[in-house]
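Journal club prep, shared notes

We agreed each person brings one worked example of a sequence with its structure written out as tokens. Mine is Ribosomal protein S10 domain-containing protein. I'm keeping it raw so we can talk through how to read the token line rather than staring at a rendered picture. Sequence first:
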Amino acid sequence: ASLKADNPEKPGAEQPPIHRIRITLTSRNVRSLEK
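Then the structure, token by token:
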């Protein structure tokens, strides 16, 4: 149950770090494309 991303008690408790990495990579890619 703790591995479920739909867990109502902890919505994506283990997902934030992954999202942060994706956001960081996305931000870098966007900045590179904008230049």
